[in-house]
Amino acid sequence: MKKLLKYLKNYKKELILGPFFKLLEAIFELIVPVVMADIIDKGIASGDSSYILKKSGLIVILGICGLGFALTCQFLAAKCAYGFGTELREALYKHINTLSHTSVDRIGTASLVNRLTNDTNTVQNGVNMFIRLAVRAPFLVIGAAVMAFAIDSGLSLIFFIAAPLISAIIFFIMSKTIPMYRKTQQNLDRATLLTRENIEGTRVIRAFSREHEEIEEFRKAVDDISDSSIAVGKISAILNPAAFMIMNLGIVAIVWFGGIRIDTGILTQGELTAFTNYMTQILLALIVLANLIVTFTKAFASANRVSEVFDLESEENGSELPDSTSENIIEFRDVSFMYEGAGENSVNHLSFTLKRGENLGIIGGTGSGKSTAASLIPAFYRATEGDVITAGKNVKSCDMDSLRSIIGYVPQKAVLFSGTVRDNMKWRNENASDEEIISALKTAQAWEFIEKMPDGLDTHISQGGRNLSGGQKQRISIARAIVGNPQILILDDSTSALDYATDLNLRRALKNNMQGTSVIMISQRTTSIKDADKIIVMEDGEAAGIGRHEELLENCPVYREIYSSQMNEKEGNDNV
Questions:
Q1: How far apart are alpha carbons 61 and 68 in whole angstroms?
Q2: Is 251 helix (H, G, I), strand (E, B) or coil?
Q3: What is the per-residue DSSP string for 60-71?
Q4: Mean pLDDT, rounded, for 18-30
Q5: Band of pLDDT at residue 568, cut at 50, 70 and 90
Q6: Within 13 Å, how many C-alpha atoms sit on residue 428's CB side?
Q7: Which whole-number Å values give the CA distances from 36 to 32, 269, 342, 496, in the listed order?
Q8: Which of 87, 277, 458, 496 could covalently link to 33 via disulfide, CB atoms 3.0 to 4.6 Å apart?
Q9: pTM recorded for the entire structure
Q10: Superfamily for 2-311?
Q11: What is the pLDDT of residues 105-147, one digit of tens each?
C-alpha cells in the first residue's frame, strides 16, 4: 500500500481538509447530547418553553452545520479518491505497457485486466472511506468516552467493558477475512480468464459444440467466487448482531445503574439521557469502524495485488542505437533460451549469421522453437545464454524503441485493432501517406480486396478484425509491418491462412519490392522458405541444419523428410 501513496501527492489539501471537516461534524455531534440534557434538566423540569425552544433551535443549527461539514467532506473525499484512482490507473496501465513478455506471462493477461479495473476501484473506495470515516469514527469513540467520563466516571466503566468486547470481535473477523479476500480475488481472476477465452474463442466453442461444457466450467468458477464470498459474508455477518447485542446490553446496564444513581441524586435524568446517547454513539462508531476496517481489508488486499504489478520488472532498455552500417543484420552467438518455469530450453545453443539484404527461412515441427528464436531478435524475450546481435548491437544494450523501429513483426495470430484500415496501417509510421499504405497493401496482396470495399482505406475494422476472414487479416497485418520499409521483416508463420497462389505472389512481391529488407520467414511450408538465402531447420530447440534448400536436401534428414512429406507436382513448380 505504501508504494501507492505517492499517487496522493497532488491531493494533500483534500487529505487534510476532508478529515478536518469530518472532525468538525463529529464535534457538533458530541455537543447535541449535552444540549439535550439541558433541555430535560432545565427546560422540561421547570416547564420553561422559551428555554426549550431556544435549545431546540441550537440543535437544529448544530444539525445544519454538521450537514454542511459532511457535504464538504464528501466533496473533498470524492475529488481526492477519484483523482487518486485516475492517476493510479494511468500509472498502472503505463507500467503494464513497459513490462517484458516474461513479466506479463508471470501474472497473466486476465489477472492484469482484473487488477487494472476491479482492484484499482477497491483501492479508490478505500481512500474515499478513509477520508470520510477514518477520523470521524475514532474521534467519536474517544470524544464520547471523555464526555461520558466527565458526566459520571463510575458509570463510564460500562464503556470500558463494552468497547474491548466489540474490539475483540473486530479483530477476530479481520484475522479470518483478510486471507479470504485475497482468495476471492484469485477466483475472480479465474472467472475473468474464462470469460476472455470464451468470448474470443466463441466460434471454436460452437464449432465443437462445447457450449454446455464451457458454461459448466464457468459456472464452477463463479460458484467458487460465490462460495468464498459467502464464507467471508458469514464471518462478517457476526459483526453487527454481536456488536448490537453488546451495545444493547450496555444500554440496559446504563439505564439500570443510572436509575439507581438518579434515585441517590448522583445523576439527573438529562445526564442519564446524555450518557445513553454517548453510549449509543460510541458503539455505533465502533460498528462503523469495524465496517471501515472490512473496507480497508479489501483495499489493502487489492493494493497488494496492484503493488505486485508495479514490482514486476519493466523491460530493460539500453542506450545503444542500431548500426545501419553493420555488415551483418542478425547474429546469434551460442544462444539458449528457457521460459520462466519451464523444465528445459526452448532454444538450445543456436548460432548463425545473416547479412544485410539476405532472407532467412526457419522451419521445423510444432514446438521446435521457431517462434521463440524469432522473438529474441526484437528482444521480446532475452536470451538466457549467449548473445543476440541485431543491426550490429547486442539487443541487451539497445534502446528498445530504436531497435524495434527497424523491425516489422507479424505474429502467428493476426491482431488488428478497431478503427479503419488506414488507422491500422499507420501503426509503424503515423505519418504514412495513402500512397505508402496502398503500396504496402499491394505488396501484401491485400489491396485487391480492400479497393473493392465501398469505403476503401476508410473501411471500418471491428474489434480483433472479426469482420474479415483469416487470410484478409493476415495480409493486412503483413502490410502494416511493411509500411515504413523496415530493415528486418519477421513473418512468424503469418501466411498460414493464404492459399499457395497468394503465398507465391506475396513472396514474389517481397523479393521485388523490398530488396533492401531482410525477410525472416517462419513457416511450416517448405515452398514458402526454399528460395531463402539461408534456412534454419529447428528440431527440439536446436538447429538440425543450416544452409540453402539444395544443401539441406542433401545433408539434413529432418529437412528432407519435411520436404518429401509436403512435395507434390504443383508445389514443385512454384518457383519465385
A1: 11
A2: helix
A3: HHHHHHHHHHHH
A4: 89
A5: low
A6: 26
A7: 6, 10, 73, 83
A8: 277
A9: 0.73
A10: ABC transporter type 1, transmembrane domain (1.20.1560.10)
A11: 888 887 888 889 888 999 999 999 988 888 888 888 888 888 8
